[in-house]
Design brief:
With 266 residues, the protein is α+β, with helices and mostly antiparallel strands. It folds into two domains: 108 residues, RNA polymerase, RBP11-like subunit (Gyrase A, domain 2, 2-Layer Sandwich), CATH 3.30.1360.10; 115 residues, RNA Polymerase Alpha Subunit, Chain A, domain 2, CATH 2.170.120. 21% of the residues lie in helices and 36% in strands. It has a four-stranded antiparallel beta sheet with strand order 1-2-12-9. Strands 3-8-4-6 form a four-stranded antiparallel beta sheet, with helices on one face. A two-stranded antiparallel ribbon has the order 5-7. A hairpin with a 2-residue loop joins strand 10 and strand 11. The longest helix is centred in the last third of the chain and has 25 residues.
């Protein structure tokens, strides 16, 4: 297996995975979505809420706020000595106390105060509730590690997708330079360069084959590498995108090993 990173930002990573079949690629994608743990608010104690928003709706919004996660600092509830009852090893407490003065105010995720400075909202600009004059909310919330298989709020990724690496071939002996394929291509990967039809940014090709259908001479061929996949991973901010990929690969390796050990024991 070989990985080539094409692009990496604070919340996104784009890479090519080579030397694996589609089953592995999809297993890696599903591991990122459902098996990799992340922190999220799971229980909310509403002490006071005089806003127009129902307690249940406010708790739901809090649960969907992505929290920065340090996987090594917390245990999964089912693997903690407290047996899921909640302790400092598997749970983090956040509080929210806000009161409007003579004018209405918007309460944002940055108004949450965490007992652990490492577990805070990934973005402070998420609106939670609007308070009319003299309205107040006092909330105590408890965050824990969880997996996407339990609830989507525990997913560390906003989106994760892959596709085959496209191969675009132009047969210059058949090309009439009519330019119709250039106009019809939605990704603009074809261009006329003097007396030559050239390709650009072929990784952006969506494999729609619109250019193939438009080219009567059959000068264009769209194919793909059977063991190469282009991945795009977008983090919610709870984990760095490169850590999501590495940790998911490790989890997948562990699950495969468990399955092999079980099969060998039969």
């Amino acid at each position: 297996m070989e990985i080539t990173i094409l692009e990496k930002t604070e919340h996104n990573i784009k890479f090519i995975l080579e030397g694996m079949d589609v089953a592995f690629a999809n297993a890696l994608r599903r591991t990122m979505l459902t098996r990799l743990p992340a922190m999220a608010i799971d229980e909310v104690l509403v002490i006071e809420n005089t806003s127009v928003m129902y307690d249940e709706m406010l708790a739901h919004r809090l649960g969907l706020v992505p929290l920065t996660t340090i996987l090594e600092d917390y245990n999964l509830p089912d693997k903690c000595d407290c047996e899921g009852k909640g302790c400092s090893l598997c749970q983090c407490t956040l509080t929210l106390e806000k009161e409007a003065g003579d004018e209405e105010i918007m309460v944002f995720s940055r108004d949450l105060s965490s007992q652990d400075p490492k577990v805070v909202p990934a973005s402070g600009d998420i609106p939670l509730v609007k308070l009319a004059p003299h309205q107040r909310i006092i909330i105590e919330a408890y965050a824990r590690l969880g997996r996407g298989v339990e609830n989507a709020k525990f997913q560390p990724v906003a989106t994760v997708a892959y596709k085959y690496v496209p191969l675009v071939t132009v047969d210059k002996s058949k090309c009439t330079l009519c330019g119709d394929c250039v106009e019809v291509c939605p990704k603009k990967i074809l261009r006329l360069n003097g007396n030559t039809l050239a390709t650009q940014n072929t990784l952006d090709c969506s494999l729609c084959e619109a250019c193939v259908e438009e080219c009567e001479a059959g000068a264009i061929t769209i194919d793909s590498k059977p063991d190469s996949f282009l991945f795009k991973v977008e983090s919610t901010g709870s984990l760095p995108p490169e850590e999501i990929v590495v940790k998911s690969a490790e989890l997948l390796k562990e699950r495969v090993q468990v399955a092999l050990d079980f099969a060998n024991s039969l």
